[in-house]
């Protein structure tokens, strides 16, 4: 392990560092953890905004506001990039694939589902469960697309 990327990035710096120390006997020295007090405070502010945004995305999804949830998910990436810590991309792509599917946009759902499968596979899939779920979801989208094509024919 060379940095704190294995901990949720919304976690405050000291909590992340303590987790790594307690669980891995590791003192993180990445730029995220060794920044100046001002930089860390600014970063923590962005992380809290991202955490709140992710919670709002989940709420919008559960209430059926899929276009809003899609827009907020895209903002999640933008805010994360501003903080120079983009989200774990397979997770991000999974979220967008799900939202586009729920919104009835099978083309974009399939596009993001393929990126999720690709990302989980490239990651070496430490968690094979995520890769398998992404593959099953993509297969379901492919079947749905095939049904739609056959209806149009």
The value of Rg in angstroms is: 18 Å
Query: How is the quaternary structure best described?
Result: single chain
- Report the principal-axis shape: elongated
Q: Low-confidence stretches at least 5 residues in length (pLDDT < 50)? A: none
Class of the largest domain in CATH?
Mainly Alpha
Integer tally of domains:
2
Estimate the helix proportion, in percent. Answer: over 70%
CATH 2nd-level architecture of the largest domain: Up-down Bundle
> At the third CATH level, what is the topology name of the largest domain?
Methane Monooxygenase Hydroxylase, Chain G, domain 1
Give the strand content: under 5%
* Overall pLDDT confidence: 83
Provide the structure class.
Answer: mainly alpha
Alpha carbon gap, first and last residue: 53 Å
Q: What is the number of helices?
A: 7
Order of helices and strands: HHHHHHH
Say how many strands there are.
0
How does the major sheet shape up? none
């Amino acid at each position: 392990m060379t940095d704190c990327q294995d901990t949720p990035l919304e976690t405050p710096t000291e909590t992340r560092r303590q987790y790594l120390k307690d669980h891995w006997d590791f003192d993180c020295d990445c730029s995220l953890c060794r920044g100046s007090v001002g930089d860390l405070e600014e970063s923590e502010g962005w992380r809290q905004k991202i955490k709140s945004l992710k919670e709002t995305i989940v709420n919008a999804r559960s209430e059926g506001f899929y276009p809003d949830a899609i827009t907020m998910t895209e903002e999640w990436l933008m805010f994360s990039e501003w903080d120079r810590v983009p989200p774990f991309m397979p997770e991000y792509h999974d979220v967008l694939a799900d939202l586009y599917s729920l919104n009835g946009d099978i083309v974009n759902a399939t596009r993001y589902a393929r990126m999720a499968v690709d990302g989980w596979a490239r990651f070496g899939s430490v968690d094979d469960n995520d890769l398998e779920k992404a593959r099953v979801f993509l297969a379901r989208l492919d079947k749905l697309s095939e049904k739609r094509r056959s209806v149009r024919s």
